[in-house]
Amino acid sequence: MDVKVFVFGNGNLSFKNFLEYYEKPITEILKTNNPSFVLCDFKGVDTLTMELLKCETANVSILHIGTTPRYSPDKYKTKVSQWNFIGGFQSDIERDTAAIHMCTHFLAFDFNSNEKRKSGTLTNIENCLIQNKINIASTLLREIKG
Question: Which domain of life is it from (predicted)?
Fold first, then answer.
């Protein structure tokens, strides 16, 4: 099975939390048979994941609103020039829906939702689960807990 992972999360994620929650799973995914990644171009998880992947794989699709992405890593001596940038989306919802449709798996953690507020990250996690996408985070948590 082809593995196409949508990596997403909160924009205000700290670098420390990125390393704690995302770096190891992404590194493990890269060891599998030719994975690909789907990302958006928002701050936080999106940009940190781009920086992690820029020298590791050409198999990355970046979805963005409008004609140009808000962020793109340096192309010099990286694999970014081979990435697929897909623009023209009119809203975050339209872009995120396309990303969910494209993926087979997802990696996401939500740190911002509470009883008064539901984050876009939590909404995307719920939509991934509704569409039977494989949650890499829960798989890893089960492995860690034994």
Answer: Bacteria
Sheet containing 36-40: which strands, arranged edge to edge?
84-89, 60-65, 36-40, 4-9, 105-109, 134-135
Assigned token pair, 143: 């492995």
Query: pTM for this structure?
Result: 0.93
Give the architecture-level CATH label for domain 4-145: 3-Layer(aba) Sandwich (3.40)
Distances (CA, A) of 52 to 35, 57, 114, 117: 14, 10, 29, 30
Q: CA Rg, the chain, in Å?
A: 14
Encoded tokens for 1? 């099975």
Q: Which residues contact 28 (CB under 8 A, 6 or more apart)?
A: 140
